[in-house]
Write a structure and sequence with these properties.
Layout (H helix, E strand, L loop, with lengths): L1 H14 L5 H12 L2 H10 L3 H11 L6 H16 L7 H27 L1 H12 L6 E2 L2 E3 L5 E3 L6 E5 L2 E4 L14 E4 L2 E4 L3 E6 L3 E6 L5 E4 L3 E6 L7 E12 L7 E4 L4 E4 L3 E6 L5 E8 L2 E4 L5 E4 L3 E6 L2 E6 L2 H5 L5 E8 H12 L2 E4 L8 E7 L4 H9 L6 E4 L2 E4 L1
Parallel strand pairs: 1-9, 4-9, 12-13, 22-25
Antiparallel strand pairs: 2-3, 2-8, 4-5, 6-7, 8-11, 9-10, 10-12, 11-12, 12-15, 13-14, 14-17, 15-16, 16-19, 17-18, 19-20, 21-23, 24-25
Length: about 400
């Protein structure tokens, strides 16, 4: 058991980057003795699962620790023994790893207790789990009825005065009102107005009646007709959306509160949040025309971004991969101020952010990470730079 405890202690020091050269050699020798041990050592540095267990252990009373260790060993054993084990020799090795893994978690929790400064800076990012956003949205019909859309689905399709989920299943109890207008002696059906809204921490997709695909980011609203009629196809956006416009002779027009974007068939992103001072239109392919509040026109080519700051409309060249990363499940930052980054994180994780040190707003970061990561994982990565620290209380995040 002493050897097992010692390896657990080495693993905890490995997590904290505090191994001496001799201890590194000892841990390397142990890892080299079995591929499973090697994999576990490598997994320590990606310790989201481990830190979750640590957080649970830290919340126990000391008198309960032995019972928790027994439960923890059983859980780790179930995970490890799910791997094929053809020989008794390998079975013994797996059981040794079970004990080491469980004791390692206890060792980490104990070590963190004595590293008070580390607890002050990182307790919130370890203990307070804030899950990432997911598929969630609300559909509002013309008569004001609201429908909470299925989070198990990724989007809806508008077709022939009907709305379905992307797998073909119909929305329950949805009947689109069909107002009529009399033209001469003929009664013609008019399209109805619909609204798709995502909350903070949500995202959703929609295929409009003309085949245009729209992916809404968090805290966004798209108003659109049940079907397009007349000489134009017009929608209204607040927030952020990625448009893949189906080619059509009728111009496709996106209205925001301060600008208008006109296209025929193209891919582009519009960012127009009410709490932002800047609105952007980023062209991925095709061509678009952007009109600002002073009605001046700006033509964009692929790789260009229209910037509306106040009533001034300009354009810059941007990295398209960086701009569309969120549509592919990635946060991508390129020399971006922390203030902007935290606004994006606040929408995706549905939290409120405050800066205790205002100077930190202008610090820039560059890199990418999965939007599926928990918030404590994201914040821990920023903390590792030594530039900023974070404190979480419920759904409030303080930057200091």
């Amino acid at each position: 058991m002493e050897d097992t405890r010692y390896i657990a202690q080495l693993l905890s020091k490995h997590l904290l980057d505090e191994l001496t050269n001799d201890e590194k050699a000892e841990l390397e020798q142990w890892a080299a003795s079995n591929p499973v041990f090697r994999q576990y050592v490598e997994d320590v540095k990606n310790g989201d699962r481990i830190l979750t267990d640590v957080a649970a252990f830290q919340q126990l009373e000391l008198s309960d620790s032995q019972d928790y260790l027994t439960t923890l060993k059983q859980r780790v054993h179930e995970k490890i023994t799910a791997i094929p084990q053809p020989t008794k020799y390998r079975q013994k090795r797996y059981l040794v790893l079970v004990s080491i893994a469980a004791l390692f978690i206890v060792a980490v929790a104990t070590t963190l207790y004595f590293y008070h400064s580390l607890i002050v800076n990182r307790t919130s990012t370890i203990v307070n789990e804030i899950a990432p956003g997911y598929n969630q949205a609300t559909l509002t019909l013309a008569n004001g009825k609201t429908i909470k859309l299925d989070s198990a689905q990724s989007g809806i399709i508008v077709q022939d005065e009907d709305i379905k989920y992307n797998d073909g299943s119909k929305l329950p109890a949805v009947i689109l009102p069909a107002p009529s207008a009399v033209s001469g002696s003929e009664e013609t059906s008019l399209p109805t107005s619909l609204t798709l809204s995502t909350p903070k921490g949500g995202q959703y997709q929609i295929i409009l009646s003309d085949g245009t695909k729209v992916r809404l980011n968090a805290a966004s609203t798209l108003k659109y007709p049940s079907r397009f009629s007349g000489d134009t196809r017009e929608v209204f956006l607040e927030g952020e959306a990625f448009f893949e416009v189906n080619n059509n002779p009728s111009p496709f027009i996106v209205h925001t509160n301060h600008q208008t974007i006109t296209v025929l068939g193209t891919k582009f992103i519009v960012t127009a949040y009410a709490d932002e001072n800047v609105q952007t239109t980023t062209l991925v392919s095709g061509a678009v025309k952007v009109n600002g509040p002073r009605r001046e026109a700006l033509m964009l080519s692929p790789g260009e971004q229209g910037l509306l700051i106040g009533d001034q409309l300009t354009k810059v060249n941007v990295d398209i991969k960086n701009e569309i990363a969120w549509t592919q499940g990635i946060f991508s930052f390129k020399k971006e101020p922390l203030e902007n980054i935290m606004k994006k994180l606040a929408r995706w994780y549905d939290v409120d952010v405050t800066f205790e040190n205002q100077a930190l707003k202008q610090i820039t970061f560059e890199g990418s990470l999965e939007r599926s990561s928990s918030m404590h994982t994201v914040l821990r990565l920023f903390e590792h730079t030594g530039e900023a620290h974070f404190r979480i209380a419920g759904r409030r995040v303080s930057v200091y």
